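Progress report, Aim 2. The chain analyzed during this reporting quarter is listed below.
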Amino acid sequence: MAKKYIPNGSCLVCDKGAAPTQLIVTNHNNTKIYGEFLASEADMKPGENIMPFGACSVKNGSPCAFAPLYWDKCNKDVKVNGYKLVFEDAKLLCATGGQIMVSITATSGTGTIQFGLTGMGFGALPWVDYNRAIDFIQRGIIYDVESGKLSLVRSNSASDYRRHGNYGEMKDNVFHRADGWDDIRAEHPLIDIDKPTAPGIDGAYNKGGVGGDYKETDGKYNSAELQKNKGTGFKELDQNWSQNHLDNGAISNPDHALEISNRNQNNTLDRAITRTHTDGTMRTEPVDGNASKLRGQGTDIEYPQTRAQQLATSVRSSISNSAPIQALADSKMSNAVRNSEAALQANEYLWRNSDQIAKYGKVVGRGAVVVGVVMDTYSIGTAYAEEGEFGEKTQAAAGSAAGGMAGGWAGAQLGAIIGTAICPGIGTVVGGIIGGVIGGLAGSSFGKALAGWF
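Predicted structure tokens for the chain:
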């Protein structure tokens, strides 16, 4: 069987790169073979013929900066514009150590991977940040409480006030996260409103990195006040109470631990109660090193939520509380997963390593988005140049790109809801990523079809 050549628009992958990209044939001298511009040995210039491949494993996850050497299989007898044509099974060798090859051909802007890539990256990218998953879960619980879907009174015990305290702590976490504070506690943030209460620091935050601003908080519901620990006699948020927790590993990062300990000991550490009232309104009440309130310094604060967030949370809540999702959450399988030691360890690992995971994941995700946008733009432009107007091909290209973006976002949201029902935390992350990928592909195909209706 005669070997085939590589057409313009083919999807390329690198065995050391994290994201696929598209081949753009430019050295064709306007010569088509079988109706296609075919790749020649000259079509290997970075940024012109081939976009970067995301994170590079040879460079420990740094962005791709490939240095092409040559295509290893060319037909010496068939040339275009003086350059030999490249066989479809050829590999483009990179001086960094990678090998680039054709994965899926996607000519004339019709490839699913081509358009789905933007949506995949756009939908899945946010979920590599574990803080996003925590915020997703906490906001969902808070919304259900404040919309009356979830009672703060446990059905089996009216005198059990754990939900009150956990609700207040979650609102404290969400407020500070939205205000630019990083949670530096070693303890995993609350994602279960029924978790038994335990002595500990509700909130330890940093803004500006090591040496920046530090703050310690205690979330309280309604009229609850700071309490003395029965074992130590120390009052919540006072210097001795704080130092006791710090000495017992409350802050995992040693640099942050040293900074906050020094400020606690010299009484320059910001301390405050974050109070949530019965109607959901909030107030911050600063205290001194003796855990005594500073008179006249309390401030009302707004729960951080845009209209878009409120609408999205409302929709997610309706889906989360639907019969199928509730049945999944209450199933024996889901209960077994979320209560397993493996799930607990996975959540702890994600929390302890959230910064490193997010940094690497964002490189990969952003690479996919950038490559996808370039591919989408090129394909829309190519279709428009071919038609000379916003015709059927251009509409399909634009619709596919837009559908991929919308599908990626929607798929990630639904995937995160399903994942949370199975196992809050790790399930949320996995569901969001998988949902973003599937949604990007499905949305791309649907958008392309929808565009043809107009």
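The chain has three domains: 1-105, 112-149+321-454, 157-304. The domain at 157-304 is CATH 3.40.1350 (Trna Endonuclease; Chain: A, domain 1). These observations will guide the mutagenesis work planned for the next reporting period.
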